[in-house]
Design goal:
The chain has twelve helices and 13 strands. By secondary structure, it is an alpha/beta fold. The chain has three domains: about 80 residues, Winged helix-like DNA-binding domain superfamily/Winged helix DNA-binding domain (Arc Repressor Mutant, subunit A, Orthogonal Bundle), CATH 1.10.10; about 100 residues, D-Maltodextrin-Binding Protein, domain 2 (3-Layer(aba) Sandwich), CATH 3.40.190; about 100 residues, Periplasmic binding protein-like II (D-Maltodextrin-Binding Protein, domain 2). The strands form four sheets. Strands 4-3-5-13-6 form a five-stranded mixed beta sheet. Strands 7, 10, 11 and 12 form a four-stranded antiparallel beta sheet that branches. The longest helix is centred in the N-terminal third of the chain and has 28 residues. The chain is globular.
Length: about 325
Amino acid sequence: MQALRAFEATARLRSLTRAAGELSVTHGAISHQLKALEAELGVRLIERSGRGIRLTDEGERFAARVRVAFDELGAAVREAADRANPRRLRVTTTPSFAARWLLPRLQRFGSAQPGIDLDVSATMQLVDLARENIDVAIRYGFGHWPGLHAEYLHDDAFFPVASPRLVGARPPKVPADLARFPLLRNEDEPWKPWFDAAGLDWPEPARGPGFEDAAFLVQTAIAGQGVALARASLVVDDLRTGALVRLTDVVVATPRSYYFVCQPRDADTPKVAALRAWLRDEFARDDAPISAASASARPSPSRPRSPSRSRRRRAASRP
C-alpha cells in the first residue's frame, strides 16, 4: 500500500520531491518504493526526463486505475466515519488562518450550529480532499483547483500594524515615519508592493526578524518587537481589542483571496452549506473593524483651528 501511495502521489504531482513532501517521507524513500513497485509488477512506470520525471505509457494507464481505486477507498472510509459520527465535519486550512481567524471563533460556530462538530486540520500542504477524507478546505489562493467545487469567500489586504507599546506617543504620521521602527519580514508576503503604493522608494528589507508563518509574524508584532505588514483577516480581532493598531491608511490588495472548497457532490449537503453560510457571515462581520481602523489611520482634513482643537485633532489622528 505504501508503494502504491508513493506512486499515486508522484504520478499526480509529477515530482518525487513534492510527493515526498506530501507523504512526509524522504526523497530516497519515495524512490525506493517506486523501484520496489516496478520490480513487483515487472514494468517500467516512471522515467527521468531532464531534471524531472515522466510517466511511461504503462505508468499513465496504471496511474489512472490507481487513482480511481484510491478515490473509491477514500469514499468508503468517509462513509463509514460519517455513520459512526454524523455530527463531524472535517476542515483543512493553513496554520496561520486556523490560529489567527478560525480557532478563536469555534465557540461562536458551536453556538450557531450545535449539531456540527468541526474537526480542524492545519497544514501548508495542498491536501487531497478525497484521499485525506476531508469535507471542506478553506484555501487562500486564486480559485483554480481542478475537479473541486470552489466558491469565492472574501478578499484580503495588507497594511502595517504594530503594538501600541511600540509606537508609544509618537505614532507615524506619514508612511516614511516607519523608518523609525524595525520591520518584520515574511518571505511570501514582501514589503515592496506596499512601499510602492505608499510612494516610498525603499528596497525590500534584508535584515530584521523573518518568519515563514504569518501567525508568528503577527504574534511578534503583538509582543512589540516590530511593525508587521499583516493581512487584514489575520489581525481583525487584534484591531478590535487594541492589541494592535493600524499605522497608515495605505492598503495593498493581496493577489490571493479566500475560497470555500469541497468535492462537487458535497457542495449542497446540510453540514457543508451551514459552514459556508457561517463563514460568509463572519467575513462580513470583520469588515466593520477594518473600516474603523482605516478611518482612525486617515489624517483629518487640515483647516485653521484653535490650539486646543488642534491638540484634539492630533490625538484623534493617532491609530
